[in-house]
Automatic annotation (TrEMBL), chains A, B:
<protein>
    <submittedName>
        <fullName>PadR family transcriptional regulator</fullName>
    </submittedName>
</protein>
<dbReference type="Pfam" id="PF03551">
    <property type="entry name" value="PadR"/>
</dbReference>
<feature type="domain" description="Transcription regulator PadR N-terminal">
    <location>
        <begin position="15"/>
        <end position="89"/>
    </location>
</feature>
<dbReference type="InterPro" id="IPR005149">
    <property type="entry name" value="Tscrpt_reg_PadR_N"/>
</dbReference>
<dbReference type="InterPro" id="IPR036388">
    <property type="entry name" value="WH-like_DNA-bd_sf"/>
</dbReference>
<dbReference type="InterPro" id="IPR036390">
    <property type="entry name" value="WH_DNA-bd_sf"/>
</dbReference>
DNA sequence: TCTCGTTTAGTCGATATCGACTATACAGTC
DNA sequence: GACTGTATAGTCGATATCGACTAAACGAGA
């Protein structure tokens, strides 16, 4: 099981990583993450960033260094990592690399209830998904190519290669599923069709009355 | 982009799915989900369930039907889905099946900062991950086999096949990464080693003093 | 020099989430 | 017939999260 982190949001890991390099103010963290494409691997919201930074400070993992003022811009607090912060960063990172965490992808939730859709509809939705997945794949590929063109070593783009591998697996898997549904080789298909051939119209009828009844 | 759902927790989808079949009280939803293995695809916490059920009721997607009392047990509220609930369920489900959502797997976050660990350590952590992934794979396989043995049609276990495909891709990908690091064919490796060969001992030294300084 | 869009830099409040805690009933067993 | 563990059925408070909103500074063009 994953250790409970003092600041659980993975954005905190990114903040620690950035401050490991050098002190920074929050806004600079955002721009740096964007420049390096790290906002693709760690969810970055402004509001979360500021609360994460506050929490890290409370926990003594980072400390405010100075408050600068560039021109007549509002002042910015520059933060630095502490020794405790370095320890937490490395410990967390090791765990993330070593231990596969149980996750709940949205598509898995969708698949869980796939049988609630009539087979023909499921089929066309899955086909549309393939198209959308391919679009995403080419965008990730594009990002990788651009990074390489800029001379970024592969080591620093490795997470996008991982993402690509997952997306490619998904597209192939969905493709295979589509083929199986079309070929009728998926076990339970007959029941699935039969079920929807009755309940579809009936359910719609009943649900209208039912809806009324239930809402009063 | 994903539509904002009135009750965003995917557990709400599961609740709607269950009530689509028949009215139930919350505790029964938990046991039913467990029996069917749906707690592997949708994160199920007691406390979340109750707040989700409340929110669904406020939104008019479900309604309390009756409060039963089995024996002298505390009373339980049985809920039923409304027409609005059926609409929301199907709409949400269609979207989940059709549109790939951007997600942030923990491992991707870890990989983003892999270079912060010395290569030799990264290597051994990745090797441990392979082992742990294989353990998880055999557990998922076991679950699938058990489901089939109980006569559950594949259609209702499809999400586990998806999970398996992702896990297998990950294990293969990590394996390939390990090989590349070992072979030294990963671009940036030389710099990576060089960097850690200085900064490792220095960083530890400096960070001790540094930590003091920063903490006062 | 006016103004308008963009970049810089955040704040705030409403919700969502989750772990820890509570409490009764029943089944088995000594 | 007392005792204990497990299944049943939740509650509550502390945090976390996120979208919507704010607001100054600056550059470019009219």
């Amino acid at each position: 099981m994953a250790t409970k982190r003092t600041v659980p949001n993975p954005l905190a890991l990114a903040v620690l990583a950035l401050l490991y390099e050098r002190p920074m103010h929050p806004y600079e963290m955002v721009t740096t993450m964007r420049e390096r494409g790290k906002h693709e691997s760690v969810k970055l919201r402004y509001s979360s960033l500021y609360s994460v930074v506050e929490a890290l400070e409370r926990a003594g993992l980072i400390v405010p260094r100075e408050t600068e003022r560039a021109g007549r811009r509002p002042e910015r607090t520059v933060y630095a990592i502490t020794e405790a912060g370095r320890v937490e960063f490395l410990d967390w990172l090791r765990e993330l690399v070593r231990v596969p965490e149980k996750e709940y992808p949205r598509f898995m939730a969708g698949l869980s209830f796939l049988a609630a859709l009539p087979p023909s509809e499921a089929l066309s939705l899955l086909k549309e998904r393939i198209q959308l997945l391919e679009d995403r794949i080419s965008r990730v590929r594009g990002g990788l190519a651009q990074g390489r063109a800029l001379g970024v070593p592969r080591l620093f783009l490795i997470e996008h290669e991982y993402e690509l591998a997952l997306l490619e697996t998904e597209v192939a898997w969905v493709h295979a599923l589509v083929k199986e549904i079309e070929a009728g080789t998926i076990e339970g298909l007959h029941l699935w069709e039969l079920f929807h051939s009755w309940t579809e119209p009936v359910a719609v009828e009943r649900s209208r009355e039912g809806g009324r009844d239930e809402l009063r």
